[in-house]
Amino acid sequence: DSSMLITERSGQLRSLSNGQLSEPITGVPPVYADSQGGLFDVVLHPDFEKNRWIYLSLAHGEPKANAVRLVRARLLDDQLTDLEILFTAKPYKDTPVHYGARFSFLPDHSLVLAVGDGFDYREQAQALDNHLGKFIRLHEDGSVPGDNPFIDHANALPEIYSLGHRNQQAVVYDNSRQKLWAHEHGPAGGDEINELVKGGNYGWPLATRGRDYSGAAISPFEELAGTIPPRWDWTPSIAPGGMTIVSRQRFHAWQGDLLVAALKSREVRRLQIKDDTVVETEALFAEFGARLRDIREGPDGALYLLTDHAVNGQVIRIEPKK
């Protein structure tokens, strides 16, 4: 149908249909809603119309022990049933920030999930005995794929797909190019767009183009042998939010482009991929003057922006100029 699902950080899941926002859908599990923690992403199973599975990421736990969790449940008549816990990141941490928690299905119906570095634990992004600062990959039922890159490595957690990440805010699969794109927040500068590959090390905190918030250097290296540099970066930071790939004809001039919502710069950045090179082309929709948390391309080909506001967040629908 034409409705959409929207998560609220405080733990509510609602549907939006014809401009009308529903009451909270029942059956959502409890979330740890503090600072950056709460209810995060919602994604439909690729066969949702048949099986009714939806997937949710959330912060689970309490102030001194919290973590990213992935669950799924069936959506039936505005309520969730058959709830299953698929994954909880290890270890629990005592910071309510840098969760990551965005995720995307791949063509084989496995999924990749971002787990942020927890801010105070950035060195753990390079260690394979924990999930912090990683993307992890799971089968749709939460089991571990046998071809994950570190499954046979001693002391490595088998779910890990890539490492060396900071605070990932989007991941999308590019069907036309068969690539997986993600972006993440740097500290003061060094926001990155990366092409994710299995087993890749994306450098954090050994290599970064950002600096610490104090102005101090985090690393002497912007690039480092054995790590994968970003395909694009923003310095100064734009604080990227969600990301989508234009795949339908409604915005045909942008087909195949990446659109990145931005919180700090309050706009959408459009990036083209030409001959496997990422090139930023323009900033869009600054006229709304809003922190933009997410952007999605709808089944109707229109673009939908989600503003970031504690009380009066909005969904903005955008069509091409006639």
Explain the overall architecture:
The two termini are 26 Å apart. The protein is mostly beta strands. The strands form 6 sheets. A 4-stranded antiparallel sheet has the order 4-5-6-7, with no helix packed on it. The protein has a 4-stranded antiparallel sheet with strand order 8-9-10-11, with no helix packed on it. A 4-stranded antiparallel sheet has the order 12-13-14-15, with no helix packed on it. 1% of the residues lie in helices and 42% in strands. It has one helix at residues 48-51, and strands at residues 4-7, 13-17, 20-21, 39-44, 53-62, 65-76, 79-88, 100-105, 111-115, 134-138, 160-163, 167-174, 179-185, 191-196, 232-234, 240-245, 258-262, 267-274, 277-284, 292-297, 303-307, 315-318. It contains 1 helix and 22 strands. The protein folds into 2 domains: 4-231, 6 Propeller (Neuraminidase), CATH 2.120.10; 238-322, Thrombin, subunit H (Beta Barrel).
List the helices and strands and how they pair.
Blueprint: E1 4-7, E2 13-17, E3 20-21, E4 39-44, H1 48-51, E5 53-62, E6 65-76, E7 79-88, E8 100-105, E9 111-115, E10 134-138, E11 160-163, E12 167-174, E13 179-185, E14 191-196, E15 232-234, E16 240-245, E17 258-262, E18 267-274, E19 277-284, E20 292-297, E21 303-307, E22 315-318
